[in-house]
Design brief:
Number of strands of chain B: 11
Oligomer: heterodimer
Number of helices of chain B: 0
Strand content of chain A: over 45%
Helix content of chain A: under 10%
Strand content of chain B: over 45%
Largest sheet of chain A: 7 strands, mixed
Order of helices and strands of chain A: EEEEEEEEEEE
Structural class of chain A: mainly beta
Order of helices and strands of chain B: EEEEEEEEEEE
Helix content of chain B: under 10%
Largest sheet of chain B: 6 strands, mixed
Number of helices of chain A: 0
Radius of gyration of chain A: 13 Å
Structural class of chain B: mainly beta
Radius of gyration of chain B: 13 Å
């Protein structure tokens, strides 16, 4: 597509429920990133994909968080047994890292509220 | 990992003023990017600038890699420039970008 698409744009859930957030990167972008931004804060790195593999999962905050990418395209971030501290905007970005300038393009984000 | 610090944390200016935002990073980098996050939360890439100077309209950026800092200049500020400006740098040899804590810019009409 023309840009990075994320869904849902807004999700309100109850504590303890599982949620799935989806990212559809720009066509042809081999690298995909997930970041988290809490209210008024900076961006916290979660995970990075090159193709379908994740060379760097170091930012996932706990084993309740997991992510996968299939077909070198769409990625899903899953949060199990959500907690209130998981409330944040989850941002996805994609890039072409071998282009000589690894410029990230971000989606509009998925705002997650855990009640 | 790399540390990225930005200053000032907040800046309030009158429309038409000029401003300079600073980004310091702790290690050598081969990729330094500046982003603007508008009041609706959308992050837009402004510059990819591992070294040297680039200009785009009223905005320009300079990175002095040997001294581990980058500057973003905004001239003749407009209200649409309001938002948070982030710089980001990778851990060496790693594609993961580490973001600074940002500078919140407010332009008053």
């Amino acid at each position: 597509g023309a840009g990075v698409s994320q869904s849902p744009s807004n999700k309100v859930t109850e504590k303890g429920k599982d949620v799935e957030l989806r990212c559809d990167p720009i066509s042809g972008h081999t690298a995909l990133y997930w970041y988290r931004q809490s209210l008024g804060q900076g961006l916290e790195f979660l995970i990075y994909f090159q193709g379908n593999s994740a060379p760097d999962k170091s930012g996932l905050p706990s084993d309740r968080f997991s992510a996968e990418r299939t077909g070198g395209s769409v990625s899903t971030l899953t949060i199990q047994r959500t907690q209130q501290e998981d409330s944040a905007v989850y941002l996805c970005a994609s890039s072409v890292p071998n282009s000589g300038a690894n410029v990230l393009t971000f989606g509009a984000g998925s705002r997650l509220t855990v009640l | 990992g790399i540390q990225v610090e930005q200053s000032p944390p907040d800046l309030i200016l009158q429309e038409g003023a000029n401003s300079t935002l600073r980004c310091n990073f702790s290690d050598s980098v081969n990729n330094l990017q500046w982003f603007h996050q508008n009041p609706w939360g959308q992050l837009i890439n402004l510059f990819y600038i591992p070294s040297g100077t680039k200009q785009n309209g009223r905005l320009s950026a300079t990175t002095v890699a040997t001294e581990r800092y980058s500057l973003l200049y905004i001239s003749s500020s407009q209200t649409t420039d309001s938002g948070v400006y982030f710089c980001a740098a990778p851990n060496f040899g790693n594609e993961k970008l580490t973001f600074g804590t940002g500078t919140r810019l407010t332009i008053i009409p």
